[in-house]
Structures are given as structure tokens and as C-alpha cells.
Design brief:
Blueprint: H1 2-9, H2 12-119, H3 141-149, E1 164-165, E2 168-169, H4 179-227, H5 232-333, H6 350-353
Helix pairs in contact: 1-2, 2-5, 4-5
């Protein structure tokens, strides 16, 4: 309208040419302005797209960094939980093995004491139980014959009693758990054999004395017949002396048997006391062995836990280094760290907007 108003102000002859010129100039100017506007709009759009893209990238990086931090924290928590479970498992395993060892030794002590107490009932006098005259199952016949020949060596029977081998408690067996009964049977058998031997000696002594008396009387009568001397009073005196000698022999034999019986009973009592001492020693050795086992078990567990913790430190350090490198790569690159996720930006077409 402005161009048309300006042309109307001119003379009629100039209007047509000026109008055409003005219209061409106006059209060209309008096209120039449109091109500049479109170029500026395109530049503004590209700058806005760049800003939006950069903002989007920063948001994605921040989000993925946050996710990475959460993931690494979850991994730390997971590793810490695994390590705690491993340590707890090691502790529980150690306590279980230790308790099993304690229970095992407790049962051994209980069984040992029960068998020891069972062998002699309260109120029962020593060696009062009837025992069969059988060879002892603890020692061979050659050893028992040696003991029979030398009663004072009966204390060596304790060396054949099972239970202690080289200072270490041996496994408990039915034979080992009836030691006191076997010792009582052995002592009773020794006493019975001594009684039988003494009874045989007492039975043989009158026969020997009668035989010797007859022999001496015959020799005395023969000497009287040869020498034709001696009176009845001398014969009676000889007979009295022979009776006194026989009584003295019987008394001496009785005293010897009583002394042998006392010595044998004292020996049996000594054997029983020494067996009791050995049983007490076995109990003490069992306790000492248990203490040593528990101490060794604790030392091995502590050493194992120390080695486990020494190996755990490099694992923690390696894990932290891997996490630090991932964070450093993300901080340096400022790109999404997820390898499977790629940000795609579609360029804006200016022709479509127009």
C-alpha cells in the first residue's frame, strides 16, 4: 500500500514505470528480508538444538553417573555382605568343630569314669567278687606265668593295660573300660593259686613228717640194737623231741603261709591302688590332650582367619580401583558409560517448519 500511495503522487506518465520499479525493489527487499529471517531462524534453531542436546547429554551423564554410583554402592554392599557371610561361616564352622571335639572328649571322659565306677560297687569289699580261674585277657599266658613265678612283678601288669600309649590317650575299648575288674580277677586268681599251693603244702607236710619220723625211729632202733644201750626213758625222750620238731615245723609252715598271704594281699592292694593311679592319670592325660587339641584348633583357626583377611584386602583394593577407573572415565569423557545405551538426536528440518 505504501508503494502504491507513493506512485499515485507522481505524474500519470511516470506512474507505470515507477510502479514497476518500486514493485521490483519491494519484492527484492522482501525476499532479502525473508532469507535473512529464515537464516537467523535456522541459526537460532541450531543453537537451541545444540543447547538442548548438550543439556540432554549432561542430564544423561548425571543420571548414569548417579546410577553408576548406586550400582557401585550396591556392589560394595553385596561384597561386604558376602565377606561378612564368609567370616561368619568360618566362625560358625570353627565353633561347630570345637563343640564336636568337646562333646567327643566329654563322652570319652564320661564313659571312662562310668566304666571305672561300674567295676567296683559302693560298699563292696575288695576282692570279694567270685572270679573264674581263667587266664587274664589283658596279658598272654607267657607273661602271666612269669607273674605267677614272681608275684612282686605283678605291678608290671599295668603296662599291658590299654588306655595310654606314649602319653596319648588310646581309643576307649570294652577291654580298656573293664581294667579294674580284670585286675580284681587277676588278684583273686593269684590269691586262690596261693591258697591252693599252701593247702597242698599243708596236706603234704604230715605225710613227709610221718615218713621222716618212721625213718628216724627205725634208724634209732637200729642204733640201739647195734650198741645194746639206752633205756625206755631215752626212747620216750627221743619220741618227745621228734614230736616237738614236727610241731615246730607245722608252726613254721603256718607262719610262713600267713606271711605269704599277707604279702600277697598287700601286693594285690598295691596293684589295685596303682591301677587307680593309672586310671586317674589317664583321665588327666585325656583332659590335657583335649586342652592341647582345642588350643591347636584355635591357633589353626586364627591363622586361617589371618590369611583370609590378608587375601581380602587385595580383593577390596582391586574392587575399589575398578570402580574409581569407571568413575574417572565417565568424568573425563562426559559421555554415557552404559555401553548398550546410545543417545540419538534427530536433526530438525527447517523445510518442514516452513
Amino acid at each position: 500500500m505504501m508503494v502504491k500511495n507513493e506512485v499515485e503522487k507522481l505524474p500519470r506518465q511516470q506512474r507505470k514505470g515507477n510502479l514497476k520499479t518500486k514493485m521490483d525493489d519491494f519484492t527484492q527487499k522482501k525476499q532479502t528480508m525473508e532469507q535473512e529471517f529464515l537464516a537467523k531462524q535456522k541459526e537460532d534453531l541450531e543453537q537451541a538444538m545444540k543447547n538442548i542436546t548438550a543439556q540432554n547429554k549432561r542430564e544423561i551423564c548425571d543420571k548414569e553417573r548417579e546410577c553408576l554410583n548406586k550400582k557401585q554402592q550396591l556392589m560394595r554392599d553385596r561384597e561386604a555382605c558376602i565377606w561378612d557371610l564368609e567370616e561368619r561361616q568360618q566362625q560358625e564352622k570353627h565353633q561347630l568343630i570345637k563343640q564336636q571335639l568337646k562333646d567327643q572328649y566329654f563322652l570319652q571322659r564320661h564313659e571312662l569314669l562310668r566304666k571305672h565306677e561300674k567295676s567296683v560297687k559302693p560298699g563292696t569289699p575288695l576282692l570279694s567278687q567270685p572270679v573264674q580261674s581263667l587266664p587274664s585277657p589283658l596279658v598272654p599266658s607267657s607273661v602271666t606265668s612269669h607273674f605267677h613265678a614272681t608275684p612282686k612283678s605283678a605291678l608290671q601288669l599295668s603296662l599291658f593295660l590299654p588306655g595310654v600309649w606314649g602319653g596319648v590317650p588310646a581309643p576307649l575299648t570294652p577291654v580298656c573300660l573293664q581294667e579294674r575288674e580284670q585286675m580284681q580277677r587277676y588278684n583273686q586268681r593269684m590269691l586262690e593259686q596261693l591258697k591252693v599251693r599252701q593247702q597242698q603244702e599243708r596236706a603234704r607236710l604230715p605225710k613227709i613228717q610221718r615218713s621222716e619220723g618212721k625213718t628216724r625211729m627205725a634208724m634209732y632202733k637200729k642204733s640201739l640194737h647195734i650198741h645194746s644201750s639206752g633205756s625206755a626213758s631215752e626212747q620216750r625222750e627221743k619220741i618227745k623231741q621228734e614230736d616237738k620238731r614236727q610241731k615246730a615245723e607245722r608252726l613254721h609252715q603256718q607262719q610262713k603261709h600267713e606271711s605269704q598271704m599277707k604279702d600277697m594281699q598287700a601286693q594285690c592292694e598295691s596293684n589295685t591302688h596303682e591301677l587307680q593311679h593309672l586310671q586317674n592319670e589317664k583321665c588327666h592325660l585325656l583332659i590335657e590332650h583335649e586342652t592341647q587339641k582345642l588350643k591347636s584348633l584355635d591357633e589353626n583357626h586364627n591363622q586361617h582367619m589371618k590369611e583370609w583377611r590378608d587375601k581380602l584386602r587385595p580383593r577390596k583394593k582391586k574392587r575399589e580401583q575398578e570402580m574409581f577407573f569407571k568413575l574417572s572415565e565417565e568424568a573425563d569423557g562426559q559421555v554415557p558409560v552404559s555401553p548398550t545405551k546410545h543417545a540419538k538426536f534427530v536433526p530438525f528440518s527447517s523445510s518442514e517448519s516452513l
